[in-house]
Amino acid sequence: MSLRTAVGARRRSVGVVAAAGLVMAVLSACGSSQSAGSGGNVVATGAPVPLVVYSAQGYDQAMVTAFQKATGIPTKLVDDSTGPLLARVQAERGNPQWGVLWVDGDEAFAALDQAGMLVKNFEPNVQLNTAGQAVVPKDKSYVPTGLTVTAALVYDASKTANPPTSWQDLLSPAWKGAVGMNDPAVSGPTYPFVAGMFNQLGGDSQGEAFYSSLKSNGLHVFQTNGDTLHALQTGQIKVALIQSSAGIAAGIKDKNIKTTYLPKVTSLPSVIGIDGKVSAQEQAEAEKFASFVLSPKGQEVMLTGDRNGDSLYWPIVQGVTPDPELPALASVPTQAIDPYVWGPKEGTVNTWFTNTIVH
């Protein structure tokens, strides 16, 4: 695994403690003097200014390079893990230094939108497929760029011939002590998984009951995708519940590692938000960047820039084909949860999980 791939894997398991803090902080900033940019498709005719891109995507350097070459717009990439980037956005909310934020998961973007920090009413002029349309916010305050799902069920077919086929199966004696997942207070993709279970089971109390039952049945909680996969590969657990791209990547390296999807898994979009406080010139450049990402050239970069990690996603642009290692998205039983409902709950749910399930 290359250094960049290793870093990309870490990003997909990055802590969301900072993200939870962001939710609280930006919501409390709603009464500040900041107001959202609302003029999507801004036209600026001045000289190019550097476009600053905060990103945790494994293909971000390749994208920035391709965008700068195609447009001549000077582009500065700040490449880091999701948690530190969200903490940086929080710290800079009085004087933002970013033009584009690009990370996985839309809950934090919903919080930024509610705090009036994002450009509204802009979406690139592309045709999205049904799955893509399902994760576009009503006020068009952020731009989905692709999908993974959480949590996929990952297992070793050489050791486990008949994996679970429903979430309730995980609570049966047959899987006692055999199931592992990441900690949502540490792993970025895991809070949407937890929130998705709460959502499909009918609410907070039903979700808490499910995870409490998992704990009673011997649930193992690890910090990151890598830790949970290591536990699977060493036989400590038989089933790993992690982000789909991490499971598929593990299966590319070891053909015994299989990824399947219980009904239902939660859509996890990669998302671009545009800072509503930057100059009209940088805002126009940011809109060009988002449009480039969803263009044929940009989609080619996304699909090839991190083949052992973030490139293992389902495109949301009509006519774009995913990596052949992925099943057809139509065959994956997915749900899209409302980030405006579940984003503000992130801190509360993670605190409950830490106090009740982890400890």
List keywords for this structure.
single chain; 359 residues; alpha/beta; 6-stranded mixed beta sheet; 14 helices; 39% helix; globular; disordered N terminus
Chain oligomer state = single chain
Q: What radius of gyration results from the CA coordinates?
A: 20 Å
Gap between N and C termini: 33 Å
What is the helix tally? 14
Query: Which structural category do the helix and sheet elements fall into?
Result: alpha/beta
The gross shape turns out to be globular
Question: What amount of the residues lies in strands?
Answer: 15-25%
Residue windows where pLDDT falls under 50 for at least 5 positions: 1-10, 12-18, 24-36
Nearest-integer average pLDDT: 89
What does this 3D model show about the protein?
This protein is an alpha/beta fold and 359 residues long. Helix content is 39%, strand content 15%. The chain has helices spanning 3-11, 17-28, 60-71, 82-91, 107-114, 130-133, 190-201, 204-216, 225-233, 244-253, 280-293, 296-304, 339-342, 346-358, and strands at 51-55, 75-79, 100-104, 143-150, 152-156, 179-182, 220-222, 239-242, 257-260, 265-274, 334-335. The chain is globular. The model is unreliable at 1-10, 12-18 and 24-36 (pLDDT under 50).
